[in-house]
């Protein structure tokens, strides 16, 4: 129903800059997730879109209109807060009807829309309850219902699942995904620090760090082809193994020498000038497997094993005690502490990043595009 | 609960004893005032209120009838009758004829008074006095006796103080002062507290600092300048210097810094997201205040109302300065003070007046005590 466009959006408190010029195009009907560590500015960005924070400079458009100076209620947005932010002294019905009552809508219209929203969220039989008589999951549903009633062009979620316990979090996550499916035209923007939520819900993920956008892409793009070291380590759990390496042979494919003492052939093009350069060599724990043949990537002794049942995390000492290699192996493989282990990985699952942390694959893609 | 405190039985016992002692220290005098106010005037003088449920024993003097009513019987002159006359009968335990020994003879026995004169005084007040010679004189024999009166409770004291001593009028005067002087500061302070907690405007921090600063200004220091200012303004508009409006304004002024401080700290502790949510829902500042903040602040409004009500009700100083001492303006505390001077010995008047004065604070305290406790915690623990 509405595009959201940000052009050079900056936010600062006095001399402290929180957002350093954010450019972002959100298409109508998209589910966008802002993700990043604490203090990266993702909540500030969301609150700026909501109008709860004034942006210092730049331009913010919702549905083609510049809304920099438009009050929150006139922006066509609805927001779901982490703490639900229900009005504690009002019943569920009154909570959901509040915005329409303020807007002086007719009683019949209010009743119709509240009951509709309650139907969608299975809240009909709780309409007369006060929030304090409801569980966390139900409260969050009321908060979502309050947003639905407003019939917004853009839905904003600020870490809506953080206050729920693990089981409820999964259930509510699925409910939000279904809600999005039932409202395909509504744009949704969702802030979280939990990458599982980001991966499962998003059409596109925006990774933020210290007020900058690090990368924007679909969940699989970010997972398969992280644009830089930060994204590589932020997406995926446990984080990607990053090892110092030098380029032994540039071109395509590239051959690197990593600190494990072995050479690796990476099918990514590097410019000729990069030969001998220090790079970061990355491989995800889940992409590593026990080598069967003579061709292997790492050799080391098993330092520690965390058995999770389905999988096990094996920490392998490859000669650098400060850089243990983490691998995720199937739970039924027997791995003993102190045993020697040889690991390999498919060539296409290997990543190399230049000294600034940027991915070479992205460079070459940009180079090709240019 | 007892387990979680982790204290020994002795420790808890000590706590309970201490609580009991405090309760007793507080309750006993109040009870004393209540009981005294309901007792008969004469009994208050005769015995303490703690004896009021037992019969009170008092020594009294009476006089037998004069010689003129004597009859001659069996060669003796006899005086017979009841010492209480037509009055209420009391129990006489002992009697005597000398003021030095007023309880010389037990009731019912016959006392030899010399010269063959005998006197028998029964417990019910009946007496027989005989003499071989005729009684003479217009005044009868003086008799002392110890009698015990049954406990006597009466609401007469209340009738007296409320309707003839002017306490009833003062009670209404006190209410006239107290209710507006409680409501006005709450109204002003609630608005101010919301603005100072949630609205951004230049000078807000300074304003808060000034209000906190005003908390420490002693009332006595500002009393006279305030009165002068008020009189100046009053004479400009041609209003008399001592009016209810004046004392409402004075109490409002003296109450506001604390009211704003208390309410602001509570309102600032309300979750920010609720306000933001309301703002997204389209509510203006005024709507947020009326529909969200006021209902949520009810506990702290109630607790401030209690503080202010009790303080104004018990206030003497401000009332003396800003109100007259005539019947239509004198408040209870001032009236009580005046009664101490004019009726200092009349305990039944004083205790009754005192109890009329404390009855309102008692009702306020007991009906709102849960808010009282919550209000005291308002600054330290997030309410709600």
Give a summary of the structure in a few sentences.
The complex is a heterodimer of chains A (370) and B (384). Chain A is of the alpha+beta class and 370 residues long.
Q: And the CATH topology of the largest domain in chain B?
A: MetI-like fold
Q: How are the strands of the largest sheet of chain A arranged? A: 6-7-8-3-9-10
How many distinct beta strands of chain A?
A: 20
Strand order of the largest sheet of chain B: 2-3-8-7-6
Biggest interface found: A-B, 23 and 17 residues
Number of helices of chain B: 15
Number of domains of chain A: 2
* Mean residue pLDDT of chain B: 84
The major beta sheet of chain B can be summarized as: 5 strands, antiparallel
- Rg from Cα of chain B: 33 Å
CA distance, first residue to last residue of chain A = 33 Å
- Percent of sequence in beta strands of chain B: 5-15%
CATH class category label of the largest domain in chain A:
Alpha Beta
Q: Summarize model confidence as the mean pLDDT of chain A.
A: 89
CATH topology of the largest domain in chain A: Rossmann fold
């Amino acid at each position: 129903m509405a595009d959201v466009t940000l052009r050079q959006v900056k936010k600062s408190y006095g001399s402290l800059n929180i957002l350093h010029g954010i450019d972002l195009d959100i298409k109508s009907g998209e589910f966008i997730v802002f993700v990043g560590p604490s203090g990266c500015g993702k909540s500030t960005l969301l609150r700026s879109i909501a109008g709860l924070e004034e942006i210092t400079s730049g331009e913010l458009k919702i549905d083609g209109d510049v809304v920099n100076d438009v009050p929150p209620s006139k922006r066509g947005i609805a927001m779901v807060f982490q703490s639900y932010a229900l009005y504690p002294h009002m019943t569920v019905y009154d909570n959901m009807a509040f915005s329409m009552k303020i807007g002086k809508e007719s009683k019949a219209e209010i009743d119709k829309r509240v009951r509709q929203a309650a139907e969608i969220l299975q809240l009909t039989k709780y309409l007369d309850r006060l929030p304090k008589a409801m569980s966390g999951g139900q409260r969050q549903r009321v908060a979502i219902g309050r947003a639905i009633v407003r019939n917004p062009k853009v839905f904003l979620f600020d870490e809506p699942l953080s206050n729920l316990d693990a089981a409820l979090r999964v259930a509510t996550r699925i409910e939000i995904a279904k809600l999005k499916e039932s409202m395909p035209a509504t744009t949704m923007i969702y802030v979280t620090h939990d990458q599982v939520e980001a991966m499962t819900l998003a059409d596109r993920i925006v990774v933020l760090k210290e007020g900058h956008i690090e990368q924007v892409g679909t969940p699989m793009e970010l997972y398969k082809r992280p644009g830089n070291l930060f994204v590589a380590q932020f997406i995926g759990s446990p984080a990607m193994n990053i090892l110092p390496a030098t380029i032994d042979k540039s071109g395509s494919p590239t051959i690197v020498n990593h600190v494990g003492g072995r050479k690796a052939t990476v099918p990514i093009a590097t410019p000729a000038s990069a030969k001998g350069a220090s790079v970061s060599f990355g491989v995800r724990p889940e992409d590593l497997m026990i080598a069967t043949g003579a061709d292997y990537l790492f050799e080391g002794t098993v330092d520690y094993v965390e058995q999770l049942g389905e999988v096990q995390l094996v920490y392998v000492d490859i000669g650098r005690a400060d850089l243990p290699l983490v691998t995720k192996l199937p739970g039924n493989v027997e791995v003993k502490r102190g045993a020697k282990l040889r690991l390999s990985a498919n060539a296409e699952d290997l990543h190399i990043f230049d000294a600034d942390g940027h991915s070479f694959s992205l460079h070459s893609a940009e180079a090709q595009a240019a | 609960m007892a387990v979680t405190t982790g204290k020994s039985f002795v420790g808890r016992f000590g706590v309970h004893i201490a609580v009991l002692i405090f309760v007793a220290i507080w309750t006993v005098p109040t009870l004393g005032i209540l009981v005294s106010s309901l007792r008969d005037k004469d009994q208050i003088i005769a015995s303490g209120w703690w004896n009021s449920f037992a019969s009170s024993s008092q020594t009294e003097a009476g006089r037998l009838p004069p010689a003129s009513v004597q009859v001659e019987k069996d060669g003796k002159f006899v005086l017979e009758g009841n010492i209480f006359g037509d009055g209420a009968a009391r129990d006489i335990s002992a009697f005597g004829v000398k003021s030095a020994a007023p309880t010389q003879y037990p009731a019912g026995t016959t006392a030899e008074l010399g010269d063959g004169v005998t006197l028998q005084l029964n417990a019910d007040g009946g007496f027989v006095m005989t003499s071989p010679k005729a009684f003479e004189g217009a005044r009868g024999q003086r008799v002392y006796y110890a009698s015990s009166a049954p406990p006597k409770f009466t609401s007469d004291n209340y009738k007296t103080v409320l309707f003839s001593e002017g306490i009833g009028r003062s009670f209404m005067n006190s209410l006239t002062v107290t209710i507006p002087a409680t409501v006005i500061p709450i109204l002003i302070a609630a608005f101010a507290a919301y603005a100072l907690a949630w609205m951004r405007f230049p000078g807000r921090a300074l304003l808060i600092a000034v209000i906190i600063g005003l908390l420490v200004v002693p009332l006595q220091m500002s009393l006279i300048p305030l009165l002068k200012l008020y009189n100046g303004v009053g004479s400009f508009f041609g209003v008399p210097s001592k009016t209810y409006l004046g004392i409402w304004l004075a109490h409002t002024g003296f109450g506001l810094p604390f009211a704003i401080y208390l309410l602001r700290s509570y309102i600032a502790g309300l979750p920010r997201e609720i306000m933001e949510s309301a703002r997204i829902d389209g509510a203006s500042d005024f709507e947020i205040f009326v529909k969200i903040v006021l209902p949520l602040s009810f506990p702290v409004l109630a607790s401030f109302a209690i503080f202010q009500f009790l303080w104004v009700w018990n206030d003497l100083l401000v009332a003396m300065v800003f109100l007259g001492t005539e019947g239509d303006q004198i408040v209870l505390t001032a009236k009580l003070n005046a009664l101490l001077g004019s009726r200092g010995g009349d305990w039944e008047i004083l205790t009754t007046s005192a109890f009329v004065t404390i009855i309102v604070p008692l009702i306020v305290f007991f009906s709102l005590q849960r808010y009282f406790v919550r209000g005291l915690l308002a600054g330290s623990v997030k309410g709600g």
